[in-house]
Design brief:
Layout (H helix, E strand, L loop, with lengths): L1 H6 L3 H9 L3 E4 L1 H6 L2 H35 L7 H53 L4 E4 L10 H8 L12 H6 L1
Length: 175
């Protein structure tokens, strides 16, 4: 497929090689958004988060029930103190579990992004070598939304201000 794509590669880029370095752009964010393997891995992480949330919900219900039970005891009694300590222990354990899970999820997510990014870079490298491309620049192909301050500021700060028929994003997605 990549060989076939290279035969349809934009002639405007081919003309550029006669006069100097062949430079193209790619929107890596769009490539990643269209990467099914990447999306599946992120969905797996989300499923893990959802399962953990169910565990947390069960713990919250357990604490809620124990707080209700606590109301039935006299403040300062041995039973009251013991139950109060049990509630505090459950809450403390949940807090620690949440911190550990958050760190684990962030590390897994970072690894998924890293692996997927490297895979995309390898596709870009292979495509570029087959097509005599010397330089590939990342750019944001999304148009500026004048109603969004964030979008306008992001657009104003784009490194690539203009490009004409140099975008290889669709070729990379298909390869």
């Amino acid at each position: 497929a990549a060989t076939m794509l290279s035969s349809y590669f934009n002639p405007a880029v081919a003309q550029n090689s006669a006069t100097g370095t062949r430079v193209v752009v790619v929107d890596i964010a769009v490539v990643m958004e269209n990467n099914e393997k990447f999306k599946a891995k992120l969905e797996g992480i989300q499923a893990e988060i959802d399962a953990f949330d169910k565990t947390l919900d069960a713990k919250r219900e357990e604490v809620k029930a124990k707080v209700e039970e606590l109301r039935g005891y006299k403040a300062g009694s041995t039973a009251y103190s013991a139950l109060e300590q049990e509630i505090a222990q459950i809450q403390s354990d949940v807090s620690v579990q949440m911190q550990i899970k958050r760190k684990s999820v962030l590390m897994k997510e970072a690894q998924v992004f890293y692996d997927s990014y490297n895979e995309v870079i390898n596709h870009i490298k292979s495509f570029s070598e087959r097509n005599g491309i010397s330089l590939v620049l990342n750019f944001d192909s999304k148009p500026i939304d004048p109603a969004s301050r964030e979008s306008v500021l992001k657009g104003v700060n784009k490194d690539i201000v203009y490009q004409r028929s140099l975008n290889i994003t669709t070729y990379i997605i298909k390869s």
